[in-house]
Sequence to fold (268 residues):
Amino acid sequence: MTITEISRKGPGAAAPAEKTALETAAVTRLLVSQGILDYSGHVSARIPGRDAFIIQIGSTSRAEISPDSMLVVDYDRKVIGDDGQPPSELPIHLEILKARPDVQAVLHSHMELAIAFTMMEGMKLLPMRARATRWKSGIPTDPDPSHIKLPEQGRALAKTLGPHHAVLMRAHGLTLVAESAQALFVDAVHFKENAMAQMQALQAGAKPLPLTEAEIEQIKKMEMRDWHIKKLWNYYIRKGAKEEVLPPEWKGALVPTKAMLKRDRVLN
Ligand SMILES: [Zn+2]
Fold:
């Protein structure tokens, strides 16, 4: 099925591998547009119902990724049905996906703001903004400053990540994990906003005031994560298509329908 055909039928029309490849490609391009990915970094996502995941060909420009630049890789590191090479830091994705059955998508980025927090003595990146409650359990830092190319390095990173949703990598970058590629994109946007907020407080010479336990509890009560993800996904896909970050023919296959955007929880 071509993207035009999927587009005409709307979101959810494609087979799982095609849908995952398209979403992963869109997430990659949108992350480039948000300054979260550039010439390096990558996104992976599990293919529902298969013992394999999608990741880009390592050499393809992140700004021009399409479903055709995506590879299917199994959990033994074997590329299925294609002769492209995955990114050299594949062990980040492979070992985290193996260690964390709850995780459906992984982002590795060399985000400068995140790296800065691995280079300041006695300074931890903390939940500052309301949307940063996602990282309330903590954001550990992995001590290995080199690129993660060996399985044992990937396993060590997965161990540092533990049960959390983000791990910083000393002088190198960060890795985020989420329950879907869409959620991963939204988390990445908020992760950057939060790191920026803390950096701005520090640059102003002030002592950062992170969210307290009580504030985090209060925010949690009001949270509608699933709906929030759909709302931001809708915004960024439309914006991306309008600004030609995404090919126009992808829009129909990616934009949520009206029914999908209906809130299932109403607080009043
Ligand atoms: Zn890296």
In short: The chain is about 40% helix and 15% strand.
